[in-house]
């Protein structure tokens, strides 16, 4: 069965439909020409896999870029590898490359804009998907592979934990690795900006809606408790190699100086 994929956000749905709830939400958009659809076979015919180092972590994406254009990251540990975030594009080259590195023990995704073809990935590697319960309503293709979790912290394996910051989406989550000097994987829950000396916090990036100050304040407090030196964002080359903890805290303080509660 050919399952539809939204060409604007990349979400794969369980059956044909006219609308895409993700795109109709105020954090995304529907193109002027209307909703457009594709599928995984069409993507494979039009694109190729891209796998390259992203600050010591394997980045996984495609060319030309598709939909939002994020890339996934293979976070490797001594106990196995976790796919952080997801891209709609998946082919045999990607599956083989990951399997040659030991395969996966799980998939974790920051927020609904990156759910995409997560079920295809879960079935290709026979692993669970860890999603925050607060974003359950946005799942486009329900499946037993999805494991919803609640609360603020969820440890996938020792030293690798998900933290719900609530930025961008109620279930907006980052991944923290305690290995070495510590690393934070954020998608665009914490957004790496061009100068790399600050990060950003937004409710909607394309529609330029700022995140609520109370949410950013809570996120900064949660992140201040963690040890991390590097930070990996959502797109190619969005890596802060060192000093990330201080950058996040300085950025949150700056944000709160400019934004006030009603």
From TrEMBL:
<protein>
    <submittedName>
        <fullName>MBL fold metallo-hydrolase</fullName>
    </submittedName>
</protein>
<dbReference type="InterPro" id="IPR036866">
    <property type="entry name" value="RibonucZ/Hydroxyglut_hydro"/>
</dbReference>
<keyword id="KW-0378">Hydrolase</keyword>
<dbReference type="GO" id="GO:0016787">
    <property type="term" value="F:hydrolase activity"/>
</dbReference>
């Amino acid at each position: 069965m050919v399952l539809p994929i939204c060409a604007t956000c990349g979400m794969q749905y369980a059956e044909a439909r006219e609308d895409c709830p993700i795109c109709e939400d105020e954090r995304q958009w529907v193109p002027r020409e209307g909703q457009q659809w594709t599928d995984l076979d069409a993507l494979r015919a039009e694109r190729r896999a891209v796998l390259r180092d992203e600050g010591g972590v394997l980045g996984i994406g495609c060319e030309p870029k598709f939909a939002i254009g994020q890339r996934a990251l293979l976070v490797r540990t001594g106990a196995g590898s976790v796919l952080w975030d997801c891209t709609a594009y998946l082919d045999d080259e990607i599956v083989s490359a990951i399997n040659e590195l030991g395969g996966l023990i799980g998939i974790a995704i920051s927020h609904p804009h990156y759910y995409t073809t997560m079920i295809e990935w879960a079935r290709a590697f026979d692993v669970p998907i860890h999603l925050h319960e607060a974003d359950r309503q946005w799942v486009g293709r329900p499946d037993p592979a999805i494991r919803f979790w609640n609360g603020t912290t969820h440890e996938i394996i020792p030293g690798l934990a998900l933290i719900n910051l609530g930025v961008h989406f109620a279930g907006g989550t980052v991944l923290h690795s305690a290995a070495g000097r510590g690393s934070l994987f954020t998608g665009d829950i914490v957004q790496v900006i061009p100068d790399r000396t600050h990060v950003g916090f937004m409710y909607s990036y394309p529609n330029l809606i700022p995140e609520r100050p109370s949410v950013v304040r809570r996120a900064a407090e949660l992140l201040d408790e963690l040890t991390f030196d590097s930070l990996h964002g959502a797109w190619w080359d969005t890596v802060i190699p060192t000093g990330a903890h201080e950058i996040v805290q300085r950025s949150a303080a700056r944000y709160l100086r400019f934004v006030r509660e009603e």
